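[09:14] KT: can someone run the structure on this one? pasting the chain below
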Amino acid sequence: MARTPKQDESVDDDVTGPFAGVRASSWLRAAVWAHDVLIAVIAWFVVFWIRFGYEGPAALFERMQPLVYWALPVQATIFWVTGLYRGLWRYASLQDLRRIVFAALLSTGVIPILHLMGRFDTVVPRSTLLMMPLVMASLMASSRFGYRMLREWLRARETSHKGEPVIVIGAGDSGVSLLRELSRSARWRAVAMLDDDRTKIGRVVHGVRVLGPTADYTKIARRLDVSTAIIAMPAASSAERRRILQRCIAAGSQVLTVPSFEEIMAGQSSVDWLRRVELEDLLGREPVKLDAAQLRQRLTGKTVLVTGAGGSIGAELCRQIARFDPSQLVMLDVSEFALYTLAEEFVQRMPQTPIVTLVGDVKSVERLDAILDAYRPDLIFHAAAYKHVPMMEEGNAWEAIRNNALGTLRVAEAALRHGVDEFVLISTDKAVNPTNVMGASKRLAELICQELQKLGRTRFETVRFGNVLGSNGSVIPKFAEQIARGGPVTVTHPDIIRYFMSIPEAAQLVLQAAVMGRGGEIFVLDMGNPVRIVDLARDMIRLAGFDEQQIPIEFTGLRPGEKLFEELLADGENTRPTHHHKVKVARAGELPGGWFDEVRPWLEQRRELGDDEVRRDLKRWLAEYVGPLRAELRRVVG
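[09:31] RB: done, C-alpha cells below
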C-alpha cells in the first residue's frame, strides 16, 4: 500500500506559485537571499580585479561603487523573483543550478539596458558584463553544492557503520537515486549492487561497488552475510522481476522493492516508501493498458448499475468505473454490510462520484423493475454470484443454480424490458467443461445471455476469467491466515494448478472487453501461465519470512467438485483475437432449438431440488457438464 510522504521540508524542493517555499521559514529564506547579495558583491570585486588588476580593495571599490550602487538592488530583486529560494540546499540539484544560471544571466543582462535607459554617469566595462554571470553563478552554485556535499559526508560518516546491510539490485537511475536515500538512512546500509549490464559491473556508485550480475545474488549475499535485498528496477519487465524475486526468496532473503519509476525519478520517494514484495510481484502480471478514449465514450456521463457490488470483483468494477466520471453509479448487493463498507470507501476516496447503494436480491423481478424504473441504467455489469465450489456442490446445489443462472435470467430480462444498452455478465473459467455445480450454473448463465441476445436491442456480453488474487473466499487469504496462525498451510493436491490475475487487472479487462462488445460474444481474458498452488503456498511462506520447516504444507485431497486444472475454452470452441492482446473472443457452438424454452421452466420451478437431482438435470441441459464422478474417472485415466 502506498504511503504518504513525511510532511517535512525535505519534500518541498519543487513547490511553485505564490506559496513556493512556504515550509522553509521566512528568516531562513531572507538569510539565503542576503547570502546571494553578498555573493554578487564578491563577484563584482572578482570581475573588476580580473579586468583592472589588483589595485587594493579601496581602489577596486572606488571603481565599482558607481555601478554597483544602482545595479546591486536590481540584481537582488531578480534573485528573489526568479525562484532561487524554492529549494533547500541539502537537496541542491541540476534544477537549482539551472535557476542560478538563469538568474545570473538575467541579472547581468538587464544592466546595460538599464544603463542605457537611465543614462547613468557610470562606466560599464563590457568585459566585466561577460565575466559576471560565470563568476556569480559559480560562487552561488559552489556554496549550495558544497553545503550538500558536506552534509551528506557527515551523514555518511554517522551511518557508515550503522544500519542493516542490504544489496541493491539494479544500478540504473532508480538504483542510484535509492543509494542517495540509503546514505541518509540510519536503518539501511547498502554494501553492494548487482546489475545484468556488464558495462556497469566493477563500477562504484556513491561509494558502493557493482559486484556482479543478478544471477550471483545467492553467492554474494552469503559472502557478505547479507539477508536483505532491495530491488530497484521499476522499469524491468514483470518476467524479469519475477525471476530476480524468486532467486532472492530462494536464498532466504527478505526482499523489498521501490515504489514506482516516476516517484523515484521525481525524487518524491524515500526509504520509508520501500515495501515488502507481495504475491502480485511474484506472479509477474504486466500492467493493463486500457483504451481510455473508448472507455470514456462508453462510461462518461452514463448511469451504470453493478450487481454484486459488495463482492471483490463488483467493488473493484465500481472503483474502475468511477475513474471515467459516470453520471451515477448504482451499487446493488444482497449484503448490507458489504454495501455500507463500499459506500464509506467512496465517501472518503471518491466523493465526487454520485453513488446509490441498494440492497436487493437479483432473483426478485419486482425489486429489479423498481430499480431500473427509478435509475434507468445505460449499462449493467452483472457480478452477483455464488462462487465457492465445494460449498455449492453439497447442500447448496439448487441455490447455486437459482442465484447464478436464474438470477442472471432475471437481471437480463429486466435489462431487455427497460431498454438497457448493454449487459455484461461476469463469468468464470469453471464454466468450461464444468465438473461442479457452480461452474455449470455459470455456463447456464452464459447460454442464457447468448439466447437473450436474439430478443431485443440490448447487447449481451460475457467475460470469462480465472481466479483473482485476494478475492473473497479465494485461496490467498486462506493461506495468509494459516501462515499467521503458524501453519500448517493446507493444499488439496500437489499437482493442482490455477490461473491468477489481480483484482484491478480483472476489473480493468472486464471494462475493456465491454467496450469491444457488439452483442453475443464470450470474451476470454488472457490469464497468463498457470500456477501450481503448492508453489504459491511455498512462495507465500517465504515472503512471510519462514521456511517449510517452520510452516509445513499438508495435502488434504481434492474437495467436492474441484478440478486439478481449469480451462478457458470448452471442447469445440476456439478464439479470435481482438485489438487488445489480453482479450480474445470465444467462438462457441450453436444451441439446439427449443433449449431455452425447456430450461426456463426448470429454473423457475418453486420446488426445492436435491443435490443429486440438480446434477442429474444439469447433464440434460448441458452436454459439456462432466459431473463429479466422470471428472474423477477422467483425472485418474488422464
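[09:33] KT: thanks! The chain has a mean pLDDT of 80.
[09:34] RB: yep, looked fine to me
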